[in-house]
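Lab manual, section 2.4: Encoding a predicted structure.

Procedure: take the sequence of the chain (79 residues), apply the prediction step described in section 2.3, and record the output as structure tokens. A sample record is shown.
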Amino acid sequence: MENKRIFIIEDDANLLYGLESQFAADDFELETSTGEEEIDEIMSNLRDFSPDYIILDLILPKVDGFEIIKKIKADDELN
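Recorded output:
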């Protein structure tokens, strides 16, 4: 059985570390972002990784989490 894939977008280093540790211990494949990238780069990384789940902080340094949600819903590959 293939491991589930989770993409975590979180700018708080402590929270990100805790989530990474927990999901890695449960054998999930992980990709992370601190939200420092522009929205197009985040979307490209999401498409490349093709996650089963996304954990998204709504308040990020460069982009609004709600904008990411809108773009995910509008993207046929990710929706």
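Check your result against the sample. The CA atoms of residues 40 and 50 lie 15 Å apart.
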